[in-house]
Amino acid sequence: MFIDLGVIFMVILLKNFLNKGLMMQAWIKTLKPNLLNKDLKSENVTVVLGNEACDLDSGVSAITLAYHLYNQDPSKFVLPMLNIKQQDYPLKTELVFCLNKINIREEDLIFSDQLDLHTIDKVNLVLVDHNVLKPQYAELESKVSEVLDHHVQERAPDDSTKLTIEKVGSCSTLVAEKIFRENPEFAESDTLKLILETILQDTVLLSPSAKKVTDKDIAMVEKIESVIGGQDRKSLYDEVQAAKEKIEHLTPFQLLRRDLKSALTDKVKVSLSAVPTPVSEFLQLKDVWKDVEAFSQEEGSDLILVLGYKITEGSISRDMLVYSRAHATLFEAITRGLENPQLNLQLERSPVSGAEGHVIYFKQGNGALSRKVILPAVKDI
Q: Is the backbone of residue 361 left (phi > 0), alpha (psi -120 to 50) or beta?
């Protein structure tokens, strides 16, 4: 019997094509239209959720891991959700820049004020770049099936949740590791380059002096480049850093919202805003105290920490402001806790003028310690 090898070959190619998922850019543009056609009361939906700051690492981790999960089983409905309101997206200048480069626009993305997770009866949550849900989602903790994070572990281990929590420089490193472990042939260049840019940004170009990079970060950068080819790492880093530092068009109020996390109890709320400029320069901006107070009112903050930083030739310098208009006891507890020698922030305090209420400025001697250290410490105070 004659066998047409050409036909067999074409059938194999067609089968592989049909089984292969969409490219990331094309896939993400299908999500909102598909969401409108879904019955959220009956269908299984996996949501990959980044943290409330929605910085580059959080946003990229959510999008790329969701894309990987889709590729593993294109029949499943998987959504990345950016854990901010849509109005705050333009403030995330480096995330906007990196996604725009690959033609992923604001209108393609799903934000927390566009999808109420409580309305999805069969929701499966995967957390990236944080390991506990913020209070508004607390009742959904039982829906969390997996966590990838590089912050201090706050989540208690349980048999129903797969935890990957490691002190690497970037959560995107853990995402890359999972992708290559579960799909060794993965080679979608936009996805991998997005992860590469993020790891380089988070580790300050793999710089040992920044005290962030780990062997695993380096290994994932090298693995990515073995797939997509060697990259001009410094150019990639400089482009993203320039976008991150492009803040001259932002008001003090917008800067405080730009990279925000909170520590919340049933009694008090502490807001921690990271700004990509020294606090000493932030305080010189027009209407700064008016905006600080407006931010405090909008967020319902009892105390605000403004965490400033500047990167110079691979080294990070930091300073901070602690402000509370009316909560003297909380202010004293937080400032004493931050000055605790065991925390090793190496703080040097100076008075601040121009503000009503309780305020102090700290120059931080240990630039290696970021909000990843300060936020858990504040929660423990």
A: beta
DSSP result, 219-254: HHHHHHHHHH----HHHHHHHHHHHHT--TTS-HHH
Could you tell me the pLDDT band of residue 4, with boundaries at 50, 70 and 90?
low
* Paired tokens of 270: 């502490």
Query: d(Cα 275, Cα 280) in Å, to the nearest integer?
Result: 11
DSSP one-letter code for 276? S
What the block records as the tokens of 187 is 């080679």
| C-alpha distances out from residue 294 to 22, 129, 269, 298, 331, Å | 44, 28, 15, 6, 19
- 251: its two tokens: 């008001």
With CA atoms as reference, report the closest residue to 214 among 163, 173, 179, 180: 173
Place of tokens 């001259």: 248
Tens of pLDDT along 104-142?
999 999 999 999 999 999 999 999 999 999 988 999 999
**Distances from the Cα of 302 to the Cα of 84, 140, 357, angstroms:** 21, 26, 11
Q: Which of 96, 92, 94, 116 is nearest to 104 (CA)?
A: 96
Which tokens go with 184?
A: 């060794």
Q: Who's near 252: CB < 8 A, 6+ residues apart?
A: 282, 285, 286, 287, 288, 291, 292, 295
Beta bridge partners of 217: none
Q: What is the pTM of this model?
A: 0.88
Residue with tokens 């969701």: 66
In degrees rounded to 5, what are phi and psi of residue 226?
-70, -20
